[in-house]
Amino acid sequence: MPIKEACGLLGIYSSQPDESIARTVYYGLFALQHRGQESAGIAVSDTRSIKYHKGIGLVSEIFSEEDLEDLKGKMAIGHVRYSTTGSNCLSNAQPLVVKYHSGELAIAHNGNLVNAYELRNDLEENGAMFHTTTDSEVIAALIARSRKSLIEAVIECMEKIRGAYSLLLMSKDKLIAIRDSNGFRPLCIGSYNGSYVVASENVAFDTIGAEFLRDIEPGEIVVFDENGISSHKVITSRKSLCVFEFVYFARPDSVIDKVSVYQTRWKAGAILAREHPVDADLVVAVPDSGNVAAIGFSDTSHIPMGMGLIKNRYIGRTFIQPSQRIRNLGVRLKLNPLKDLINGKRIVLVDDSIVRGTTMGQIVKMLKDSGAKQVHVRISSPPITHSCYFGIDTSTRRELIASCHDVESIRKLLDADSLGYLSIDGLIESIDMKEKDLCIACFTGEYPMQIPREGRKYLFEKR
Amino acid sequence: MPIKEACGLLGIYSSQPDESIARTVYYGLFALQHRGQESAGIAVSDTRSIKYHKGIGLVSEIFSEEDLEDLKGKMAIGHVRYSTTGSNCLSNAQPLVVKYHSGELAIAHNGNLVNAYELRNDLEENGAMFHTTTDSEVIAALIARSRKSLIEAVIECMEKIRGAYSLLLMSKDKLIAIRDSNGFRPLCIGSYNGSYVVASENVAFDTIGAEFLRDIEPGEIVVFDENGISSHKVITSRKSLCVFEFVYFARPDSVIDKVSVYQTRWKAGAILAREHPVDADLVVAVPDSGNVAAIGFSDTSHIPMGMGLIKNRYIGRTFIQPSQRIRNLGVRLKLNPLKDLINGKRIVLVDDSIVRGTTMGQIVKMLKDSGAKQVHVRISSPPITHSCYFGIDTSTRRELIASCHDVESIRKLLDADSLGYLSIDGLIESIDMKEKDLCIACFTGEYPMQIPREGRKYLFEKR
Amino acid sequence: MPIKEACGLLGIYSSQPDESIARTVYYGLFALQHRGQESAGIAVSDTRSIKYHKGIGLVSEIFSEEDLEDLKGKMAIGHVRYSTTGSNCLSNAQPLVVKYHSGELAIAHNGNLVNAYELRNDLEENGAMFHTTTDSEVIAALIARSRKSLIEAVIECMEKIRGAYSLLLMSKDKLIAIRDSNGFRPLCIGSYNGSYVVASENVAFDTIGAEFLRDIEPGEIVVFDENGISSHKVITSRKSLCVFEFVYFARPDSVIDKVSVYQTRWKAGAILAREHPVDADLVVAVPDSGNVAAIGFSDTSHIPMGMGLIKNRYIGRTFIQPSQRIRNLGVRLKLNPLKDLINGKRIVLVDDSIVRGTTMGQIVKMLKDSGAKQVHVRISSPPITHSCYFGIDTSTRRELIASCHDVESIRKLLDADSLGYLSIDGLIESIDMKEKDLCIACFTGEYPMQIPREGRKYLFEKR
Amino acid sequence: MPIKEACGLLGIYSSQPDESIARTVYYGLFALQHRGQESAGIAVSDTRSIKYHKGIGLVSEIFSEEDLEDLKGKMAIGHVRYSTTGSNCLSNAQPLVVKYHSGELAIAHNGNLVNAYELRNDLEENGAMFHTTTDSEVIAALIARSRKSLIEAVIECMEKIRGAYSLLLMSKDKLIAIRDSNGFRPLCIGSYNGSYVVASENVAFDTIGAEFLRDIEPGEIVVFDENGISSHKVITSRKSLCVFEFVYFARPDSVIDKVSVYQTRWKAGAILAREHPVDADLVVAVPDSGNVAAIGFSDTSHIPMGMGLIKNRYIGRTFIQPSQRIRNLGVRLKLNPLKDLINGKRIVLVDDSIVRGTTMGQIVKMLKDSGAKQVHVRISSPPITHSCYFGIDTSTRRELIASCHDVESIRKLLDADSLGYLSIDGLIESIDMKEKDLCIACFTGEYPMQIPREGRKYLFEKR
Fold first, then answer.
1. Residue D155 and residue D24 share a domain
2. Which of the listed residues B212, B240, B268 is the one where a domain comes to its end?
3. pLDDT digits (tens, 9 = 90+) for A198-256
4. Which of B151, C198, D18, D85 is the most exposed place for a label (fewest CB within 10 A)?
């Protein structure tokens, strides 16, 4: 459940100079805030030069009225992300804006390159210097090294980089949207009043009043400039959309590559109820990650649903060190059990996934302390057995509880009365998409491309 | 639905000097943050003097590690509130700390006095000067004027003030908790490790690891000092607990005067389903206010429930002026319809109440724009026809849509296919409490005490 | 030298509503910033109500463009002050704004009452409550208690309070300037474009482009309202203007009660050169307090002057804890000796006063370490032997080096080659004013009124 | 007078790991704050990695206790600078920290390269990308491109760059101090407790308790590492130390290349008195730039000196827009004439230089308005006729009043009774250094190296 996604992207190419373009990006980023809550930024181009503002924190904390006033133009790209902590973190915030032989270039990146370490080494050996510790700067450096036109340089760069990348590039007069040839991360196009919008999820279109046009295809380069919109597609490989976008990351009201996230989660819950039926009194979701699957489970099992766990929505980003006594309360600061509802009942506890198992164990204990007669844990995805190399921070493999324990061992560790995971087939069935078009490596270890060896991975993760 | 509550209170009398007492209050206030999000403060006494820190914003924005370090002591009181805007607002934040003949006194207040205007006028005529525009300072002034001991001064004050007040008072060596004789606002006692806690809602006990002991009774004065806990009860009148604590304000996991808020809301939804049945395909809650009643409605009507409206949890406190185009999108910035789920369906839309009707009308339109065949609005409380004078900001009467429209007119204004409000009897039935113990004046106009005339009310609200 | 003054005042009564009145006060307060650097505030009245903004720090740190935008009106008063530290300090910032039977009242105060403790006790015994720990709030409380008109209430108040007070009071439609009957602190009137200005020193008029009109007389009450300017004078006593305004506090370009501060200081230096001549090579001032007297000394003794000590103007308000090694450098963080100039020379070191002697001792040592052959200390005022009770923080008597040491002992403690203080007669001669019109109690112990006994003084200072 | 200098540098190589190394740099930067007041930063290395903190504003505004806590290590470099305004400014703050093939590198730079534009173009053509608009990043890029050891790469870089540069470089285990072969900007070495310090001016040593060791020679590279201190000198050319360091920039208590700044300024004033004698009553300095020369003038001419202009030290960094009326007061916000002193007198007004003449004209008018019978302007340097390309922001040539007006025309524009500039010979005489070792191009146009043509200059200055 507490998995950190990498980033959210939003770009606008306006039909005409737009005084409020940064405001529109600002509101669009709110709709994507769930994809990254540690830093954010907006860059705009007025076709002559690029200005930007970035900061650490939530979108609402970073931008003042005055900051947005300063950002007027015809194009804009915005980004929300998780950054690493420490004094350098602001320099890692995106969009990354660099100057090179053809002028200025702004980059916003969602994903993770698997060969960034080698590429960066090569570039450094050839005299490149870097200001950040992001793989996004490697992309910028590759483009800066090319002597070709921007589009050709982008294609050249895509031939070198391997991994997951949905990208927005902005030069002073062009907005370019790119989705890697595997299509790991979503990216789609919308429009309003003759302006184009590109976003990680279509929910951003709803928030700013734009219409969804279409998804960007894997390996596609879409260019917006004074000549309108044009598409290039040069690299193809097997599609492998990240299954976790459906399981956890994307907002339930998003539709990715024509598949509704909500329907997928509901179906996962419904299939889970068939695969792991249980005689119980109440279905309780772990809010908010288990909400939709719990409805599917309840609707299918005809076991009534109840809000047995209440989430405190204000605790989130506090940094005040609690006293030891408070710290021992653990998950109770964020989740409170509804004792009256739980007491004496046999509970089906539904969540989307288990990563390390610590939180789930605390929740099971909390429900039993509140009088639950039994707690049956149901997970709407299969056991996570392998690390992700394509942009999801699922921790190292040894921390994944399912990488070294079988289901019965996990059940014992959680002290649950029963534990049922959705099967891989069940998960595929819940997503209205061909299995071969999905990356399910975190459940199977069958990665869609060669991944770094362990040694390298360590170095890579260090950055 | 968008009703502003007045305040939340939390007090601790520790069994021994406690370096982390302010930290405990801090985490307790998080659990009460839903009761007031505009300012907050904590005052502590080390039995020699009182220190405090207050600010504008959420609890998490106001206190730094350093602020809490400075607040060590044996007693503490904390407060969250809605304040009026403008340059004076910090001075209105609570706890209010004053110096008078017997030393220092800190006051935290939840509620609203109906005779504050008269009392303040009298005090000013007798030479009092005021620093704030709160009725809480009137209470302080009355106590400062008394020549008696603190407890006797409190009793004397309670004989003069009329209205709603749950109060925490702290002198250098005493913590006093008071609930007005009508018991308008909740207040309860808990304990941990031999320390006492007083809070507006018992959920705060869960968050800080305290046990619930009992509710404070209407008209009761509870004193915590070196002699332990003692109770005084001098004034009695008919109990009239605010029904809106159950309908909207309190957290669903709270239990008020032995009645579970969650159960009450579920039953309200269930009775609503019986009172206003409808042939439909999907029950959709307005999140989060309609969530529990919607479950009750769905469980009773056997119409499946779906998360047809997704709430953006990041939009809340932003102050950036949207462009005109974005502003026209209205409620869409905060709520997004799940089109796939809604399209072609007959929707039962459940919320807890309708105040002015503007938002509800936008939601109905949004659902229809998303393809809903029908939208049947169901409200889990009766029409609000009268203003509240006891601590709830329901706006003036003329703004209340139900004060001047009958149900059919409201239905037309909302453009709903049908509209059903829970009956008063239904509401009473849903709350496991005698009708005579509740204040339901906002639905009936039968106030439990004399209220200010209109002319005065204006002056009063101006402050 | 490092003596803390109490406060600076600035008030404007505009001939017509003035959108930029707060801006004018803001710039005027800059000219008075030397009188108080710990907090500041501005209150304005638009004849209907009073608004204000206060803060901790320098004027430039407290007010934003937006804060000043909010403060429009026809009258305004501003204040700069030294506040006590701690969590309560903002509440002690001025102007103090209170509400009472006749409406709102803003107060700005420069000085110190000697009977505030008794008055406050009496008021508390009669039911008053206080929000601050300032004696200014006692003045507000006395006015609020009066049943008479504002002017009469002010006169009544002046009959009760004893001590030093230059005051600005502002009701919604009147600006009142008051100077205590001893005239301890300066206060003068200026005008521009038909508007009136009142300020602690006339240098504020220069900064905002106003003309000096006249000094306010001791015991005078000047009222500015829609009827123009009127004067009341009800209380008289012996004038006793604080001599330290000339010695140290006031800016050298100020003229107080028709006497130029610069000329006074120059003459003090000149007389000092005659009273304590010395055979030396270079006159060096302790910047900035000794600057003007050093010129007078040099001009008279014909010993050339040199900038032997360079002051670092950026160190001032930093709160970063230095490492032990840096801390040991003491005064060197702020003052750097110009070795080339000092080396091998016999130095006359001129400053305005010695309080505790610590800093002066460090400076003498620093000069000798830089190669000075001799250091002759010359002080342009007599030894400070008694504490001030009228608004100057000269520390308690036992900390005053001259209260318990004779000149020769002090010379030894400073390790100076000679030490000469200006005589009392010399000081009086330097000020073009009758001795009987000055308070020189800090040099003589002959206070112009009864002062609190020691025991009480402690309580008083505690606040 | 209002000339903006570029930067100040401070580096420390500690004899052992030092928890308070950043604190020492912090206090040292205070002593150099006069060299740059718009941004500042500190980077430290603990021999494993480099951490840094930078910000916009004064040193005292940028660093908190916590920021300094985080910066522990064995080496540190700090920087104060003037940055350009706008949203990008933080990225231009120094030290600049980059990653390249040999690890991390921190750079702090004082000066200006004349061929940065060409070098940057070349680098971009070869694939370099830049994050800032500083010429310092060009230096970093050249080093990153080299395949040699750091020292050799630095030498290679110095063979390519032309112009003014005092540099501090820090890798994880080396601190390198460099002064360009012309020695345009000062740089010197000190020590304390076995640790080495490098600073732009030796006054920083006084502030942190270090001893001056020696100046770094033009073209010298000094390396501090675990082997101690070593010196490399590979490039030589004619020395051309910037004369304006003596005239205006450096602190009077600094000694540059063995010449005392104070003595130089005093002599300049003395020679000025001989070159342009005048029959007058009072010498008045424009504070603080004219202070020392005015003493020299007074001592030589025997005309007494007086503080006729009082500077308001608090106005400095305020950004509040004054009202039109206040704005018209111009220089009066910062300087106030002492009327009593000036009235009826013939004034000699001394300043160090005239750039555009606007301020000087306002001062002359202000003195005459205050009653001065005559105002004789004396400038302790020759007329500035040419722009600087080596790190001083003297504006473009057309803005220099002396580039297009002769002395008599300037006198008329200033409305002065007479105007005398120090001759070039007089200036050289005042500085105890050979003429050939100084850059006096701003007075003569004879630049010590080829400078950019006008067209390029524009592009260059745009950056």
1. yes
2. B240
3. 999 999 999 999 999 999 999 999 999 999 999 998 778 889 999 999 999 999 999 99
4. D85
CA distance A191 to A198: 8
Question: In 3-state terms, what secondary structure has residue A25?
Answer: helix
- Say whether pTM exceeds 0.80: yes
3-state SS record for B250-275: CCCCCEECCEEHHHHHHHHHHHHHHH
Residue D420, domain extent: 260-313+320-433
Q: What is the CATH number of the domain that holds D377?
A: 3.40.50.2020
Cβ pairs A/B, distance under 8 A: 174
Structure tokens at B440: 């339901």
Q: For C244-279, give the secondary structure using H, E and C.
A: HHHHHHCCCCCEECCEEHHHHHHHHHHHHHHHCCCC
Instruction: Based on the residue annotation, tell me whether D7 is a catalytic residue of this protein.
Output: yes
Residue D193 CA, distance from chain mean position: 29
Do C263 and C400 lie in one domain? The reply is: yes
In 3D space, the residue among A311, A303, A299, A292 whose CA is nearest the CA of residue A252 turns out to be A292
Cβ atoms of residues A306 and A283 within 8 Å: yes
| Structural domain contains residue D26 | yes
* D128 and A CB contact within 8 Å: yes
Position C207 in a domain: yes
* Residues of A that are catalytic: 7
What's the sign of the alpha-carbon dihedral C364, C369, C370, C372? positive
ipTM: 0.92
- Residue A70, both tokens: 């300063």
Query: C17 — contact with chain D (CB < 8 Å)?
Result: no
Q: What share of chain C is helix, strand, coil (3-state, %, to 5)?
A: 35, 30, 40
d(CA A129, CA A147): 18
Chain B within 8 Å of C51 (Cβ-Cβ)?
A: yes
Q: Which two tokens stand for residue A13?
A: 């190419």
- D182 and D331 in one domain? no
Q: What is the CATH number of the domain that holds D108?
A: 3.60.20.10
pLDDT in tens, C38-75: 899 999 999 999 999 999 888 988 998 889 999 999 99
* D11 and D115 housed in the same domain: yes
Question: Using CA atoms, how far apart are residues B80 and A336, in angstroms rounded to an integer?
Answer: 20
Domain end (from C240, C268, C289): C240
Does residue A289 form part of some domain?
yes
CA distances, C438 to each of A49, A385, C181 (Å):
67, 88, 13
Q: Does residue A370 form part of some domain?
A: yes
Q: Taking a C-beta distance cutoff of 8 angstroms, is the pair A441, A388 a contact? A: yes
Closest chain A residue to B253, measured at CA = A338
Q: What helix, strand, coil percent values describe chain A, rounded to 5? A: 35, 30, 40
Q: How many domains does chain C have?
A: 2
DSSP per residue, B55-112 = EES-HHHH--HHHHHT--EEEEEEEEE----STTHHHH-SSEEEEETTEEEEEEEEEE
Backbone angles phi, psi at A221, to 5 degrees: -115, 120
Altogether, the residues listed in chain D come to a count of 463
Same domain, yes or no: B194 and B314: no
Instruction: Give the one of D97, D100, D129 whose C-beta lies nearest to A98's C-beta.
Output: D129
Mean pLDDT split into 10-residue runs, chain A, 463 residues? 69 94 95 91 96 91 89 97 54 90 95 91 94 90 94 95 96 97 97 97 95 97 96 88 95 96 98 98 96 97 96 74 81 91 97 94 96 98 92 73 95 98 98 95 94 48 31
Q: How far apart are CA C319 and CA A146, in angstroms?
A: 50
B448, B165, B425, B246 alpha-carbon torsion, rounded to 10°: 170
A84 and A38 within one domain:
yes
Structure tokens at D2: 């209002």
Q: Which residues from chain D sit within 8 angstroms of residue A125, using beta carbons?
A: 101
Residues A292, A230 within the same domain: no
Residue of B27, B68, B65, B60 lying closest to B44 (CA atoms): B68
